[in-house]
Amino acid sequence: MLIPHPAHQPPSCARSFPVGAPGTATLAEHVLTTGHGTWWTDRPVRPRAVAVTSGRHALLAGDPTALAPADLSPLAGHCVEASARFLPVLTAAFDLLQPWDRMLYLHQADPATARLPRGTAVRRLRADDGPALAASGLALGWTFATWGGAEGLARSGHGWAAFRKGRVLAVACARFTGSRYEDVACATDPGERRRHLALACVTGLTADVAARGRTATWSCSRENRASRLLAWTAGFRLHREYVHHTTGPATVSGTSKLLAAA
To answer: Of 80, 152, 193, 206, which sits with the fewest C-beta atoms within 10 Å of its C-beta?
Structure first.
């Protein structure tokens, strides 16, 4: 039986997650401060293992020996970050566990100047931009989910978009927000690429992040050359490389012992 607890009141073992860490490690802080996500524990009292999820990303911490493979079924279809100690139980839990080489950048330099096409405006998202954002067709559903959807992102004050005649052409947002860092994601309509729209959105967003007294970060696949080039052009510089794992369907059916706490 799922045990509901407010997302702003995480289980005690949530202290296993770092505070003030860059990149997607800010996920736990994001869930705590925004309420968009779910905490999971192996048992309701004195939990030994804990996970936190938002937008199909997951952090996993604690004692891996406290978990059976079936316990991890709520993490199917997620990008999971965990220490190497969890690899045996993760491997047993899913039909596919795919390592993914990632690169983490910090915003450390001035961005290049974006030259926008005529008739295009770039600005911070407003609450009434939710319908246009939802109708944009941009492949950002995984990012919108960290704000509860397009409407939530539009209301958050953590997004910038490029508009033409009321249509959203590109968007950049802080998908995870923490006490020191905000992790940035962006997308552009395929027909509008190479027109500096994403660069302009990211530039506006990173200025907002700096004004909040935080540092913007950028996380992408090592193989995503376009994302890496945009990050560099926008003033991000490589901080470190790391690996997370994408999970396929759960191999073991049955009731999970992980209890939702949100």
So the answer is: 193
